[in-house]
């Protein structure tokens, strides 16, 4: 039987210690009884927690099929929606000049 994944960083490198489960990657500790299928926390490129309706900026230039220019770094994207998209695309949004699309949370940064 394999150990469960870490609820904090989703690492598969966990072990049991004194009745608690411990992640060897981020040192997060949790009780095996507290395991529930909670909705995963989606974080941006710098670790900020994202929520529906947030405004984010794109941190690196992205190529877009069907668009000559793509999305430039620093482009603001307003009113995002968090979804379980294709692959690891977890943000559904509308980019000005491009249209509706899905982005990865690893290429955006939340604005304060």
From TrEMBL:
Domain Protein YjdM N-terminal: 3-31
Organism domain of life: Bacteria
Residue ranges occupied by any Protein YjdM C-terminal domain in the UniProt entry: 42-110
SUPFAM superfamilies: Prokaryotic SH3-related domain, Zinc beta-ribbon
Protein family (similarity comment): Belongs to the YjdM family.
This protein's name: Zinc ribbon domain-containing protein YjdM
Source organism (scientific name): Solirubrobacter phytolaccae
């Amino acid at each position: 039987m394999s150990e469960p994944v870490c609820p904090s960083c989703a690492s598969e490198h966990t072990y049991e210690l004194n009745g608690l489960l411990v992640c060897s990657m981020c040192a997060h500790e949790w009780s095996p009884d507290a395991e529930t299928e909670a909705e995963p926390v989606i974080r941006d490129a710098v670790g900020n927690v994202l929520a529906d309706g947030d405004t984010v900026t794109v941190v690196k230039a992205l190529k877009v099929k069907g668009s000559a220019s793509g999305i430039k770094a620093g482009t603001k994207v307003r009113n995002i929606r968090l979804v379980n998209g294709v692959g690891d695309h977890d943000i559904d949004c509308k980019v000005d000049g491009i249209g509706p699309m899905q982005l990865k949370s690893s290429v955006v940064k939340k604005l304060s």
